[in-house]
Amino acid sequence: MKPIFSRRGLIVSCQALPGEPLYWQGTMARMAQAAELGGAIGIRANGPDDIRDIKAVVKLPVIGLLKRDIPGSDIYITPELVDVQAIIEAGADVVAMDMTNREDRAEKVVPLIRHCHEAGVAVMADISTFEEGVLAESLGADLISTTMSGYTPYSPKQEGPDLELVRQLARKLTKPLVAEGRIWSPAEAEEAMEAGAEYVVVGGAITRPQFITQKYAERLGRYLDRTASSR
Ligand SMILES: CC(=O)N[C@H](C=O)[C@@H](O)[C@H](O)[C@H](O)COP(=O)(O)O
């Protein structure tokens, strides 16, 4: 499979889910345009509508996924073949899918990966542990991303990115490694690359203003609490 991205660098995740203020037709395409202007080398996006809108206005490769809740299942990132097909039809260059070790996922993703490859589309494995990353590569994933670290019951819960996982996987994998999840500053993005990531995905810190605001408001709130008694 030929290289997907023009060079190493920043991929911006442009996602707004129902209920979020920016969940509005066309908004994520604007975010993607801003990301392209700012120097991103790729976009990650959720759902066929946003992917189509984004592909129409930016030249960058798009990693597509489909978040869908299935009753009784914890797998929500591109869970089934119909989701894979919808994302391919929308024009994604890469399909991202859950490749955690839950609910016999390893077995279930094999036909999904095959389907992508037959369509000439690459696969990004969203994993949460070292073992899952190694397994995903052996199953044929083209990119391995730390997306799910902190979001499975058995992976470490931490405020910042899982740089230790990036370090471990970088020593083992031959496929390109992506650092993703809770990267909030340019310094953390650099650390992730230093730890061995080929690409760094940043989402909320760039495209979810409610969370950006929250970070500032909480910090100032703590400052005000700390200093209240001394006034
Ligand atoms: C765990 C999960 O469902 N992650 C999702 C995957 O697409 C997105 O909600 C994240 O925004 C994305 O991974 C980027 O991460 P962050 O927004 O922390 O930079």
From TrEMBL:
The keyword Isomerase applies. GO terms for biological process: carbohydrate metabolic process; N-acetylmannosamine catabolic process; N-acetylneuraminate catabolic process. Its EC number is 5.1.3.9. Gene3D superfamilies: Aldolase class I. InterPro entries: Aldolase_TIM, NanE, RibuloseP-bd_barrel. One of its GO terms (molecular function) is N-acylglucosamine-6-phosphate 2-epimerase activity. GO terms for cellular component: cytosol. Pathway: Amino-sugar metabolism; N-acetylneuraminate degradation; D-fructose 6-phosphate from N-acetylneuraminate: step 3/5. It comes from the Bacteria. It catalyses: an N-acyl-D-glucosamine 6-phosphate = an N-acyl-D-mannosamine 6-phosphate. Keywords: Carbohydrate metabolism, Isomerase. The keyword Isomerase applies. Pfam families: NanE. Converts N-acetylmannosamine-6-phosphate (ManNAc-6-P) to N-acetylglucosamine-6-phosphate (GlcNAc-6-P). Belongs to the NanE family. This is Putative N-acetylmannosamine-6-phosphate 2-epimerase. It comes from Paenibacillus flagellatus.
